[in-house]
């Protein structure tokens, strides 16, 4: 069997052939709450959107959140997700004070950085393979209001990005960049850094919470049989989107909800634009010193091959890499492109390039990542595997992901 949160991962991490998925969505209660100490304990099926609604009016916030409000706390722990200022806030493990785990052989176990620390680290970023996470005690952060101010900083030269992101991450609360990787000319890599800040505000928009209206689901993703992303449309969209930075000379204010969950409501159409065939997301953490070589090599490959690159985005990371957690020092780049015959060649090229640049791939984002690539990229692949087998020799928890990666 394997646990399932919202089932929103791009990889088949919560299901597999011959595997029973255990849905945690109804385990969504708040168990304990200490606003003064800024601590909350919730069941693992609690969604980020629900938690946001409960906390935001109380001036509190979860510092590390991925980009969709229906993602669950269990999914955040098991994939050790990153948020929008990883270099300052770390990954999700940094927000977890304690969790309870159920495994049929071991019963219910309390884990924390001090109690059973090895199993705690194996479970945070363990892809659900150590058992069912039942609940978690989380650290919270105070916020001045439910509004954010967003500034766009133009990036005219991708080779300057590492330094620019460092400066942005030091002065802003959320930082990520957008780039035009579809341009085959001198505009390749141009774009902007989006800097977000918490602000004081009485704006009424803060009450307009939309967590309940999210429709993204595995069932509806392929409703549009044909995709609209091709070289022509992607060129047009990237040109228009890239022009945003030129016209947005002043900071804009928007709700914190819209700022931390960029792909929700009408923007979920983005996924449908890829059609029933869907898309690939490739995300890799590349050491800053190799980032220019990495991006230039991609430019050269795309100049010779016909593949529309719908999205390129970068975040700054810092910290220590451990087990199979997607963390460490460097630039985290994310690329989206339609699923087609050329995309398979591109993925093989990216795997080789990422290894050459001493990067690591994001296991939860890539539905086809081969075992040999993960084993070569993650120095502690064998350690993760042996700790897992020591804890659970029968290997009761499995998924397509764990079988593909031979865990
Ligand atoms: C629009 C969008 C934006 C995203 N943005 C980001 C981002 O900014 N940063 C980032 O890091 N990721 C991001 N992601 C990826 C996402 O955060 C992870 O894939 C996350 O694990 C999904 O959570 P889920 O609740 O859907 O879990 P599922 O997809 O159901 O499961 C994911 C993994 O968690 C395990 N799991 C879930 N619940 C439990 C439980 N209770 N006990 C034990 N194991 C459990 C599953 O077994 C599986 O291995 C994004 C995904 C989407 C769709």
Quick summary of this structure?
The chain is an alpha+beta fold. The protein is built from 14 helices and 17 strands.
Write the layout of secondary structure elements.
Elements: E1 2-4, E2 21-23, E3 30-34, E4 39-43, H1 48-56, E5 60-61, H2 73-78, H3 86-89, E6 96-103, E7 107-111, H4 117-123, E8 132-139, E9 141-142, E10 147-155, H5 161-171, E11 174-179, E12 191-199, H6 231-242, H7 244-247, E13 252-255, H8 256-260, H9 269-272, E14 279-286, H10 291-304, E15 311-317, E16 330-338, H11 341-356, E17 360-361, H12 371-377, H13 381-391, H14 400-404
Parallel strand pairs: 1-2
Antiparallel strand pairs: 3-4, 4-8, 5-9, 6-7, 6-8, 10-12, 10-13, 11-12, 11-15, 14-16, 14-17, 15-16
Helix pairs in contact: 10-11
The spatial strand order of the largest sheet comes to 13-10-12-11-15-16-14-17
Instruction: Kindly name the structural category.
Output: alpha+beta
First and last CA, distance: 14 Å
| Ligand kinds | flavin-adenine dinucleotide
Predict the CATH topology of the largest domain: Vanillyl-alcohol Oxidase, Chain A, domain 3
DSSP helix count? 14
- In total, how many domains does the architecture comprise? 2
What number is the mean pLDDT?
A: 93
Second CATH tier, the architecture of the largest domain: 3-Layer(aba) Sandwich
Q: Which percent range fits the helix content? A: 25-40%
Compute the number of strand runs: 17
Q: What percentage of the residues does DSSP assign to strands (E)?
A: 15-25%
Cα radius of gyration in angstroms: 21 Å
Main sheet overview: 8 strands, antiparallel
CATH class type of the largest domain: Alpha Beta
General form: globular
Poorly predicted ranges (pLDDT <50, ≥5 residues)? none
């Amino acid at each position: 069997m394997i646990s399932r949160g919202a089932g929103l991962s791009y990889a088949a991490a919560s299901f597999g052939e011959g595997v029973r998925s255990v849905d945690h969505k109804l385990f969504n209660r708040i168990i304990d709450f200490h606003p003064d100490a800024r601590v909350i304990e919730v069941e693992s099926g609690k969604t980020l959107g629900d938690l946001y609604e409960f906390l935001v009016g109380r001036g509190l916030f979860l510092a590390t959140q991925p980009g969709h409000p229906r993602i669950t706390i269990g999914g955040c722990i098991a994939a050790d997700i990153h948020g929008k200022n990883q270099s300052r806030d770390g990954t999700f493990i940094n927000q977890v004070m304690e969790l309870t785990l159920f495994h049929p052989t071991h019963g219910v176990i309390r884990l924390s950085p001090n109690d059973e620390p090895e199993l705690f680290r194996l479970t945070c970023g363990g892809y659900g393979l150590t058992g069912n996470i039942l609940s978690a005690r989380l650290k919270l952060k105070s916020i001045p209001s439910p509004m954010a101010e967003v500034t766009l900083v133009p990036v005219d030269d991708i080779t300057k990005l590492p330094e620019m992101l460092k400066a942005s991450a030091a002065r802003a609360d959320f930082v990520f960049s957008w780039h035009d990787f579809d341009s085959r000319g001198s505009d390749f890599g141009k774009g902007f850094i989006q800097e977000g800040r918490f602000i004081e505000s009485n704006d009424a928009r803060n009450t307009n919470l939309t967590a309940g209206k999210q429709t993204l689901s595995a069932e509806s993703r392929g409703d549009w049989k044909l995709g609209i992303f091709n070289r022509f449309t992607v060129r047009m969209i990237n040109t228009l989107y890239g022009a945003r930075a030129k016209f947005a000379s002043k900071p804009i204010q928007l709700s914190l909800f819209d700022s931390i969950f960029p792909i929700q409501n009408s923007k979920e159409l983005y996924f449908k634009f890829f059609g029933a065939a869907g898309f690939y997301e490739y995300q890799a953490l590349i050491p800053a010193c190799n980032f220019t070589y990495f991006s230039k090599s991609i430019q050269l490959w795309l100049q010779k091959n016909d593949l529309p690159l719908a999205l390129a985005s970068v975040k700054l990371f810092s910290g220590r890499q451990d087990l199979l957690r997607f963390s460490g020092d460097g630039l985290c780049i994310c690329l989206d492109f339609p699923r087609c015959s050329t995309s398979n060649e591109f993925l093989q090229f990216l795997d080789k390039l990422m290894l050459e640049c001493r990067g690591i791939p994001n296991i939860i984002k890539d539905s086809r990542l081969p075992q040999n690539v993960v084993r070569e990229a993650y120095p502690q692949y064998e350690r993760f595997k042996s700790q897992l087998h020591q804890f659970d020799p029968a290997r009761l928890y499995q998924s397509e992901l764990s079988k593909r990666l031979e865990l």
